[in-house]
Amino acid sequence: MSNQLKLKGNWNELKGKLKAKYGELTDDDLTYAEGQEDQLIGKLQQKTGVAKEELKEMIFAEEDK
């Protein structure tokens, strides 16, 4: 399954987990538009200071659980 489909399927749950872990994230920061995963990850990277690969691992690994 593609990352795009995985992300779309569990986004609300994952969004809550990201907000809990990174309290500085707002709903605007976590606005997901289908096909815009790279832009979302870039925005999260700027806001949290976490490396791009680490964010991808966190986001896409969470969905596999």
TrEMBL record:
InterPro entries: CsbD (IPR008462), UPF0337_stress_rsp (IPR050423), YjbJ (IPR026042), YjbJ_sf (IPR036629). It comes from the Bacteria. Residues 6-56 form the CsbD-like domain. Coiled coil: none annotated. Belongs to the UPF0337 (CsbD) family. This is Uncharacterized conserved protein YjbJ, UPF0337 family. It comes from Cyclobacterium xiamenense.
